[in-house]
Structure prediction request, 176 residues.
Amino acid sequence: MEDSGNTGRPAVGEVVVRDGTRPGDLGAVAALHGTLYAAEYGMDTTMEAYVAVGLAELVMAWHDEGSYAAGRLWVAELDGRIVGATGLTRAEDDWGQLRWVVLAAEARGRGVGRALFERAMTEARARAYRGVYLWTVAGLDAAHHLYKSAGFRLTDSSPTRKWGVDAVEQRMELEF
Prediction:
């Protein structure tokens, strides 16, 4: 996997993880959530809209504040297509929030999800956050395995009707 600092062109089939700051990145990340969560979990377009709103709020905060203090977004590219993403946003009480974790099927099993996750955790520690939390839904087994292996613990769980499906919404936390 190449790092965003590489100035050369990646080889065909090589995944590149980079900052998600280019025009089109936000739309691609929202679309990936929409298509993947619809196909794999039966969610409706409100999932994609929810992601798009959060991403738009992040970018507007970058603009308004003149910095990346509000958070960061990273994307994974494969042959010029965005196949994964994760973000970290500033939250209350010196915590960070892990957001927009998504990985297309063709990028799975290559360490891409872990690379994106580690990028966010490294950023959270560099910002001296007290910890990181995330909201997820039950049934995302690969993601939950990654979170638990990093030390996240389940702190809240409740049934909900969201994104067109009955789900169990869960909050997980990792205190540093």
In short: Strands lie at 15-19, 71-78, 81-90, 95-103, 131-137, 153-162, 165-175.
